[in-house]
Design brief:
Elements (H helix, E strand, L loop, with lengths): L4 E5 L2 E5 L15 E5 L4 E2 L6 E2 L2 E4 L5
Antiparallel strand pairs: 1-2, 3-6, 4-5
């Protein structure tokens, strides 16, 4: 995972992502990756699975 932290509190999943971080261009070169679980991840202690990608479009000049 990149730039993704989470915790389960009671019956809620709390996800933390630092929106100031960047991990370079996507494979297609159309977006900049901010955070990713890099595929689906099981959330321990539950029967839930998460798949998350956070990205932005590059600024156009």
């Amino acid at each position: 995972m990149e730039n993704v932290k989470w915790e389960v509190k009671d019956d809620k999943l709390i996800v933390e992502i630092d929106l100031t971080k960047e991990f370079g261009l996507s494979k297609s070169g159309k977006t900049i990756t901010i955070a990713s679980t890099r595929g689906n991840q099981k959330i321990e202690g539950t029967d839930a699975v998460i798949g998350l990608n956070v990205y932005k479009y590059p600024e156009t000049v």
